[in-house]
Amino acid sequence: MEISVIGSSGLKLGKCDLVYRELGFCNLKKNCRVFNNRVCFGSNMRWQRAGIKFTLKALQSEPVLEEKHYGLGKRFKSVDGVKLFVGLPLDAVSYDCNSMNHARAIAAGLKALKLLGVEGVELPVWWGIVEKDAMGKYDWSGYLAIAEMVQKVGLKLHVTLCFHGSKKPYIPLPKWVSKIGESQSSIFFTDRSGQHYKECLSLAVDNLPVLDGKTPVQVYQSFCESFKSSFSLFMGSTITGISMGLGPDGELRYPSHHRLPGDTKTQGVGEFQCYDENMLNSLKQHAEAFGNPLWGLGGPHDAPAYDQLLHSNNFFKDGGSWESTYGDFFLSWYANQLLTHGDCVLSLAAETFGDTGVTVYGKIPLMHSWYGTRSHPSELTAGLYNTANRDGYEPLAKMFAKNSCMMIIPGMDLSDAGQSKETHSSPELLLAQIMAACKNHGVEVSGQNISESGTPGGFKQIKKNISGDKVLDMFTYHRMGAYFFSPEHFPSFTEFVRNLNQPEMHSDDLPSEEEDVTESATRSQESSLSMLAA
């Protein structure tokens, strides 16, 4: 692949520098040299092995990237048929003014991904940005601009509808929703100490008219219908998939661990989230119907708190309360509430987008800490009733199959070897269990990595998972940003793409002997060209 930077004959690339600087790329000036009108980055063999070469063409025009359709420029698809997407920045659209952040830099990044041959990009669309000020008042302008940009480049677009908030970057729920929450805190999840989780609504209010007379499900549906109408020109062509936000960080789970996405070092078992008014009302009704009203007074009294270990209390120990009749009563109710919520939201999406030609997705968590124990406490507090005695992912896969939805599973870059022995973590065995359940029910899977800064052996592990089972249809690499295009990362990503696809290289992509000799003779020359990585 050759990337040509079009500029003036005098190498005046100030505007190009500005694009890269705005995106936050690292300066490669010290490694950049010019010879025979070619811009080269030292003897960087990683770039050469990745099949990327940069040339400078002297023309009087705006600096752009010129695509040549050979080598890695082919649309990516691995030998196993897995499509590769790359996630756009979480704050691709500004929360403050609903406009594109770093528009020129994102355009350059899209062009680079197109040249690599990836299938498309994933775009997070935030409820708190689009419907920020008032119910039913939507502003899609920033996201429409990105969709148009993606379409012009020739990439596909996977949209994630985010009905949750984010701490980093700061993107809260819509202002009008947060204002309601100030006087009705029961719309939020609540833990045993009374602490409220305000980054998504409690699933217990799904069908209660708590949002100015409307239910959250009705509000979600109106949001989806507005999206469908506003993006009708892109649906089924540029936009090929839509993920529905199902809970914290978009995942179908309770906020049992108050952590940032990508945190792979959480060791505590987490905490049950069943103490808001509406969850307690549901538990009370369930206990009365079960014939034991005392069990409906609250969650387990002998369960640990967020960061406590399994053996710090009795509930999750071998032979503990989780194996009792009460334990099964509570855990079944807790998990069924989550399953009902997921079914409600995914069926809404399937009905709304069923005639558009796009595929609907939902994301589940990979709660791999403590998987090697009998009770699997991290999964239980998150609402996944999966233990040594019970398969909790069969019901999930069945629900996804019922709604003809694909399942997104994160953490495909994680290996057992990189985990803490103290927590008996096993992401590989958990992933295998989930994949088996999906295969049993004919549910196709989309994978994601969980660490944006890279994990040791991450690319190797991703390739292993992609090459393994035929239920995997797509993989989304997270995420475009300052680290992604850096010289520390981008050559490795490019090589990863090549290893998956391994197309035949065009002869023009290979360095000639004359160029190698010329490079050696001109190592002392430096250019003013800088590259920035997003």
From TrEMBL:
Keywords: Carbohydrate metabolism, Glycosidase, Hydrolase, Polysaccharide degradation. Its EC number is 3.2.1.2. Signal peptide: none annotated. The keyword Secreted does not apply. GO terms for molecular function: beta-amylase activity. It catalyses: Hydrolysis of (1->4)-alpha-D-glucosidic linkages in polysaccharides so as to remove successive maltose units from the non-reducing ends of the chains. Residues 503-534 are annotated as: Disordered. GO terms for biological process: polysaccharide catabolic process. InterPro entries: GH (IPR017853), Glyco_hydro_14 (IPR001554). The keyword NAD does not apply. Residues 519-534 have a biased composition (Polar residues). It comes from the Eukaryota. SUPFAM superfamilies: (Trans)glycosidases (SSF51445). PANTHER family: BETA-AMYLASE 1, CHLOROPLASTIC, INACTIVE BETA-AMYLASE 9. Belongs to the glycosyl hydrolase 14 family. This is Beta-amylase. It comes from Lupinus luteus.
